[in-house]
Amino acid sequence: MDLTLKVWRQNGPNDKGRIETYPVSGVSPDMSFLEMMDMLNDQIIRDGGDPVAFDHDCREGICGMCSMFINGEAHGPNRGVTTCQLHMRSFKDGDTITIEPWRASAFPVVKDLAVDRSAFDRVIQAGGYISVNTSGETLDANAIPVPKAQADEAFNAATCIGCGACVATCKNASAMLFVSAKVSQFALLPQGQPERASRVQRMVDQMDKEGFGNCTNTGACAVECPKGIDLSNIARMNRDFLSASASEE
Amino acid sequence: MSNTGILKSSLAKKYVMALTGLFLCLFLAGHLAGNLQLLLKTGEAGQQAFNEYAEFMTTFPLVKLLSYLTYASVLFHVIDGIVLSMQNRKARPVGYVKENGAANAKWSSRNMGILGTIILVFLVSHMQTFWYKMHFGAMPMHNGLKDLHTVVVEFFSPDNSIGLIAVVGYVLAQAALAFHLSHGFQSGFQSLGFRHAKYTPVIEKAGMTFALLVPALFAAIPVFLYITQL
Prior knowledge:
The structure holds two protein chains of two kinds.
Chain A: E1 3-9, E2 18-24, H1 33-46, E3 69-70, E4 73-74, E5 96-100, E6 109-111, E7 114-115, H2 118-127, H3 148-158, H4 165-169, H5 176-187, H6 196-209, H7 220-224, H8 232-246
Parallel strand pairs in A: 1-5
Antiparallel strand pairs in A: 1-2, 3-4, 3-5, 6-7
Chain B: H1 10-35, H2 37-40, H3 43-59, H4 61-91, H5 107-110, H6 112-136, E1 141-142, E2 145-146, H7 148-155, H8 163-191, H9 199-228
Helix pairs in contact in B: 1-4, 1-8, 1-9, 6-8, 8-9
């Protein structure tokens, strides 16, 4: 396959940045998108240029590091996959592909396609945990009965890998899907109940402080989420925040 | 617990949008019920009935109370909407070169601010034409009542120099309202945290029906008045 790549290049956080065009030939349809990017970088290095910086780690769709906005969609045109699980057979010979970083003031560009997603870490630090005594006499989680439906829902929420596709996709750069998944995974389990009210308040407060936008309920985040996190999590967070605020002491 | 307080929270702004928006849906239903008298009853009896209705709406204490609630809802819905839009714009200072919004969300949900602005412009012109005149302007009289019926009929008339523009503008504004409601109705419930496996699909269907039916019936009235006076 022969492709034309239009890639966002930006030397650092303060650089203005621009789109640069690279022709790439001999791409195999069996390559993953990231392998194609490796090929591009190999070509750039051979030509004496600066390779394109992009985030990646496990390359099997579970770490949440890869983060490319491909042809106007987070993680490209396919559903339920991350960029590393996207293969070149999803494109046609002769295609022009536009590749950009996640765009949000809360996710500043570090270099080229790599953005700083530590805002998500700070949201987790604000309340995305349960406080347990780990002195050695901790109650075995398996000894606590959890209804199957609740356990499944909590696990579905917990599959969020924190890639940030929801923020990148949302027209408002809102982090509601991410934060609500992280709130829900505990709100649905017995272990999450003691800190349920303070957790949702702290995490929403931190989300607002980071400068993410507001939720318009377009539902775009759930469509583009590689893990299929759904909008019921956002409704649950709206509910929990309202109830926590109403009963604050 | 909370560092910033509920009133400053992004979620609280959405609760306000939802509550005022859903209340304004009730207002629309009530307003439409009154307006439909222009379609259902014609001639002298229609004129009398509509003027009596207009008199009732501007003087009955409970209705007056509801009308103040409506003004407040419009005001908060507009101000809150502007604040939310400004924050959203700030949340993405650098946009995408290529963005395929149609791939994952409906057009109406992505353009609520623009649709709302069209509705606001219509609202100002609409209130100036009828509401202001009824409350503070010089009105013709009929059987001892302010003759709003004649004012409305003569406004949407081929004899009025801007009659046709008024009808077209009215219909276009109702189209904007239809798109605004098609997202806003069900979105309000989601913002308030109401999501149910059985009832949410019912709310979505009810929202779509409301969004199609109410603006269509509103728009039918000036079209009917204009055509019957040709």
